[in-house]
Each structure stands twice: as structure tokens, then as C-alpha cells.
Amino acid sequence: xxxxxxxxxxxxxxxxxxxxxxxxxxxxxxxxxxxxxxxxxxxxxxxxxxxxxxxxxxxxxxxxxxxxxxxxxxxxxxxxxxxxxxxxxxxxxxxxxxxxxxxxxxxxxxxxxxxxxxxxxxxxxxxxxxxxxxxxxxxxxxxxxxxxxxxxxxxxxxxxxxxxxxxxxxxxxxxxxxxxxxxxxxxxxxxxxxxxxxx
Length: 199
Prior knowledge:
By secondary structure, this protein is mainly α. The chain has one domain (9-158). It contains 11 helices and no strands. It has helices spanning 9-17, 40-50, 59-64, 72-86, 89-94, 98-108, 110-113, 120-123, 125-138, 148-158, 160-198. Helix 9 (125-138) packs across helix 10 (148-158).
């Protein structure tokens, strides 16, 4: 049986704050474009090997780590930042997180990348904590000194995707309320004009 690491959240957030600029560089998109510097598939592959997953990435997986369009670049840059985070010594030593990390890098970051710039997961304290907690959640680990319920509550309070959804819903409700007020004012004005005409 493997002893799962108990990791202080502060250590992971500090690791993110120390993320080298190379991990925020433009992802390489192919020889034709000559665009970008970092081959994301190579970084992912190296990380997964270090985490104990010895399966090579297949051609279709390699393709998912290459930007197909401009909007993909932020997701891949976030994947690079997440790779840096996942290279935590305790995770590497455990040697059992390769599959879970691969799934998280592949599926878990897209909603976040659609709303938040990759740089903020290095420069902003709340976003650093959010990414660190998302990683631990994906690995079924709880931060040192917290219960599962405390960890879940703290992550919920930091959730960028949920916060963005609440903001959108609030804006939508405010817009509906504005239109309703405008319609009511228009009806009142029409009623007032009709009274004036009848008098």
C-alpha cells in the first residue's frame, strides 16, 4: 500500500508563485507556423513519466497538446503552469498519480482557462490557491490540517467558474429588471398621454 502524501496548501501556492517564465511562454503550434516556444506534449510526457506513468502519449493525445486556434493558447499555457505545480517532490516520490494528473490536465483545466488568464495562476494569490486546491481534489488528497469538508468549502469560495456563472446570471437578471422597468415606464407614459388627450 502506498502512503499518500499530506501536502500543505501553502507549499503548493509558493511553488506556483515561483513558476519560471518559461512555463508561461507561448505553446508551440507546429513547424509551419514557427509560432510558440514550448512543446506542451513534451512537458506533459516528461511530467507523467516522473509521476510513474510510463505509457507514451499516442499521436491523438500529442495533437491535443498543440494549439489548434488562438483560444487554445491560454488553456495550454495553463496546462504548462499546472505541470510545474504537479512536479511537487511529494507527488513525484509517491509515483502513483500519473493517470489522475493526465486526466486532470486533459479535462479539468479547460473551464478555468476559458475564464481566467494563465498568468493569474502565478501572480494572483487566490488563483494560485484555487489551482493548488483543484489539483489536490483531482488527486483525492486533502490539504494538510484540513478536513475534507473544510477543503471543499474553501475551494467553493475560490471557484472562478462558479463565480463567473453567478456574475453572468446577476447581469442577466439586472438586464431583465432594467427592461421591465423601461416597459413599465413606457406604459405609464402612454397612459398619461392618453389621459391628457381625453381631457
